[in-house]
Amino acid sequence: MRGTVVKLGLVLAAMLLLLSTGSVATATPATQAGEYSSDDFAYESKCRQCHAIIYAEWEGTMHFNAYLDPFYLEEVKIASEDTNGSLDEFCSRCHTPIGVVSGEIPPIDGSEMSDIAKLGVQCDFCHVVSGSNGTGNAQFTVTPGNTKWGPFDDARGNYHESEYLELFTQSEYCGMCHQVINPVNGLVIDDTYSTWKDSQYAEENVVCQDCHMTEGITQFKANPGRAGSGAPKRDHIPLHDIVGANTLIPPMFGAENVADMAVERLQKATIMDISAPETASAGDEILIDLSITNSGAGHKIPTGVSEIREMWLELTVTDANGDIIYNAGSVDADGNIIDAKVLYNNVLADIEGKETKSFWLAESVLEDNRIGPKETVTEEHSFVMPENAAYPLTVQSTLKYRSAPQDMIDKLLGEETGVPVVDMNEISAIIYDPSTPADERNQPESGSTSTPGFSALTAAMVLGITMYILKRK
């Protein structure tokens, strides 16, 4: 009975999303579990013969490891136990889509899964997507066979047939999996797509692929080349690393380069500003305002399963002797965040109103402290200037991020697995003795990196310049 409720919930959630995005007219029926065999799909080893560069970009990424991700495997087992298996297919549609459409999931333990189903979000699955029943909850339509769909309307292949599908150029393609709604109670768990849809980026027709499938990270940068051997040279070939912010999992599979790209993306996501008094006397109450602007992401930050993501500010004030006057947001030896003003994430509640990090048990949102696209938030910190402080005081603030709490990873994967903490941005200021002459007060240059974000005009200008250069050559 519960399984029927879940499937009904999936249909209702898809209908709601279709109505909200205006995609009903172009919808196609979603492929159901067991509709195909895993033998209907091609291994990536065939694809790499002609698409070696694209394969190398994809290998080691979170799409590559969508099923093998040990964090996912542990979490989905717990979710299955908590829900008597009713969400097995729901969770697996994005993490092992071939496993679902071939009927190899459930059981959730993977005991009946083929090798190709364990390849996560792989080449042949993505390129036999022939339509969609709307954004959210993996409402994809797949048509395995000799025809492969993609973003080029003039593609020709010697090994297979090629067809253009506009969906590949739209955020709605990504939104099939990057918008997750609890099929039982309708609670939105992952709103990456919908927060983009409500943003300035959507208004300017800047889609997910413009940032996540280019070299420019937060601004479009053309990647001229060929999609495959023998294919025509094009002004831009979409990159297939499609990196987000995960620095924990890729190194487990030897893909340090993917984690490095994630760090680079995180470090280009924000602008920071600081307001602090230039001078202060003993006994004064010092007020420090720190602002964070989401300048480089077309969705809220953090995003994804944001109830476990952690983004926070560490603020440290030290005097000229190196003594700490004030500190908030440091991480102790056990990985606990100490006295952070705000954790920028989603806080979910279970049916009893208690906080839970198990989204499958969530019934409501207690808090949403994330930062929306182009949004600025401000934290206020205060302390009293001590009598014995040695001038000048250095105020140092760092915006930090990690994919999951350390204690959660300790329980799931063991205490030997450390969660990387990424320094996303930093900024500083100096507080002087009031008697210090003004011409001797040298404020440090801001460490904040300006990331003005991406606009349709920027894309047009860059692409136009690139095309001009290619023609001249």
TrEMBL record:
InterPro entries in UniProt: Cyt_c-552/4, Multihaem_cyt_sf
UniProt region (Disordered), positions on chain: 434-453
Domain spans labelled Cytochrome c-552/4: 46-127
SUPFAM superfamilies per the UniProt record, alphabetical: Multiheme cytochromes
Feature: compositional bias, Polar residues: 444-453
UniProt protein name: Multiheme c-type cytochrome
Species, as recorded: Methanolobus sediminis
Lineage of producing organism: Archaea, Methanobacteriati, Methanobacteriota, Stenosarchaea group, Methanomicrobia
